[in-house]
Amino acid sequence: MTHMPARIGLEPDGRDVLLQRVQDENAALHAENGRLRAENERLRSEGSAKDAEIERRRAEIAALPARLGRPKKTPRNSSMPPSQAVKPNASGQPAVTPAHPRRGHAGAHRALCDNPTEVKDMRAGTCPHCAADLSGVAQSAGATYDHVEIPLAPAVITRVILRRGTCPCCRTAFKAEPPLGMEPGSPCGENLRATVVHLRQCHAVSYERLASVLAVQFGVKLSEGALAAMLKAAAPAFAAQVAPIRSRLLAGTVIGSDETRFRVGTANWWLWVFQNADSCCFVVEPGRDKDVVARFLDGVRPRVWISDRLGAQAGWGEKHQACLAHILRDAQYALDSGDTVLAGRVIPLLCRAIRVWHNRERLMRRYGLGVLEAFFWRHFLALSEMVAQPIVGNVATEKFRRSLVRWQGRLFVFLVEPEAAPTNNGSEQALRWSAVFRKVTNCFRSVWGAKLHADVRSVIETARRRGIGAPEAILLTLRGQPLPVPA
User: Fold this and answer.
1) Which of 201, 383, 392, 479 could form a disulfide with 456 if both were Cys (CB 3.0 to 4.6 A apart)?
2) What is the average pLDDT across 27-31?
3) What is the pLDDT of residue 382?
4) Would the CA dihedral through 199, 204, 205, 208 be positive or negative?
5) If residue 46 lies in a helix (H) or strand (E), which one and from where to where?
6) How far is CA 268 from the centre of its chain?
7) 202-222 residue pLDDT tens
8) 269: helix, coil or strand?
9) Is 483 exposed, middle or buried (CB count within 10 Å of its CB: 0-12, 13-18, 19+)?
10) Which residues pair with 281 in a beta bridge?
11) Is-above-0.85 flag for pTM?
């Protein structure tokens, strides 16, 4: 006989408590399930991100052999400055012995001064051997040489006393007039101010060393703040001198441009240069975009514009000459990368075009004015034939070919515009001293100092191209006189 289990009886209150407990456990299980689902989704997303990272790393690893096969960047095949190149160790030199003496150059002597300050014509009075009188004996020049000495240069300090009194006739107070050029105000004369500007801007002398040089060499004691105030006071004179230089530059037919990074305060600025054969203007700006060139040109469109291939420097002239030095470096890099198709043919072509430009006057005298245009079409068509077909296999070669296709219409402009140069070396050489100044002084803390440097460099570089020395150009500027213009 089967026994039925006894039915468990629950009180109504106990049943409700049990039901509530089951419901709470069920809710807790649902919450845990939701949490686990969210955790699972998070882990899946992290797994997908890691899979993408793994794929990216695999692509980088796959590209490493190609990158390792690329040639090293050097000043010969890129825009790396020569100062950053690693020079190889020189070969061992043989020791200097009597059997192997040091090889030198032919002896030379210092040239005599054209305008000596004083000439001492020394004549022998008595014979050094027998003490005979030689006053009436004809004597020729036996040895002629210059003795050079510089005088110690203490500052010339003039004490000015302006007397005052009362006129006995009209009973009115009067005071004496100051000497010309020694009016009350700054005690520093124009030569002292020109020396400070010259040492600071042309020789990158810091304020501390400049104060020391003035105190030791000239006996002038000036604080660093006084030197800064002196330079700041000279800024309007140089800004006024730059105005006619800019006007003459914009009136020319050819303008070259370039830029370099400059530090002003805590920000990166850019020092721009715009130049031609006899004028040069520097502009310091916080950017290197097209707005800088547009503000400088102010609507002027020169016939030929020379620059590198930076987009901000393209399209400002009726014709644009791209710098062939940059193209030749790119060609050398393609050649170093294993190019056996294009670069080896482009380099001789560009070099021949540059040689034609250097001999342009002789060629025009011999064959007429149309010879340069004939050379232009000869080189242009030869380059077009070289870049006509795409190159498969060598990435560096194909990249170089695409660059030539894009710029081939701007590579030989100098052949039909003889006043234009094939390279942008004029602008780069103008910026060279500012790059040295940047390394020596770490640039400027104030905007007015950077703008003063740009104006001073404009005056000095323009004066150099016109055959005027830097001290003379600074003095002319401080006197308010314009720089002479070449005839």
Assistant:
1) 201
2) 87
3) 94
4) positive
5) helix 12-68
6) 14
7) 999 999 999 999 999 888 899
8) strand
9) buried
10) 274
11) no
